[in-house]
Amino acid sequence: MAITIADIKKRSMPIGKIRAVIQYLEENPAGGGSGSVTWASITGKPAVIAAGADAAAARTAIGAGTPYTLPAATASVIGGVKQAATQANSTATDVAGVVADLNAMLAKLKAAGIMA
C-alpha cells in the first residue's frame, strides 16, 4: 500500500506545535522535578545490583563467589607463565661461548617459571 500526500499530512505536526513542545521541554526539566532520590527509595531495582562496600560484596550479591586465580604452570598443569628476561643474541665464536649463552638463556627461562 502506497503512502499518499494526504497520509503524510495527517501524520505531520505543524511547526507551531513543534515549537510549543520544545518550549514546554525547556521550561519543564526532565526527571519530573528537583527532589533527591535515594537508593532506598528506588523501587523495582534488580537484585543483582547491590550497594556493596567493595568488589567482594558485589560478588556475594550476585553469587559469583571468589575471583579466579590463574594457576602457576608446572610440568603437568597448564597455567599462566611470566615473560622471561631478555637474552641477547649470541656473539660466541667458540663452543664454550655458545654453552655459556645457552646456560644463561636456560637460567632466565627457569627464573620466569617457563621451565623447571
UniProtKB/TrEMBL annotation:
Write out the entry's keywords from A to Z: Host-virus interaction
Classification via InterPro entries:
Phage_B103_Gp8
| Pfam families, per database record | Phage_head_fibr
- Name this polypeptide is given: Head fiber protein
Record the organism.
Paenibacillus riograndensis SBR5
Q: Give the principal location in a single coarse category.
A: virion
Report the subcellular localization: Virion
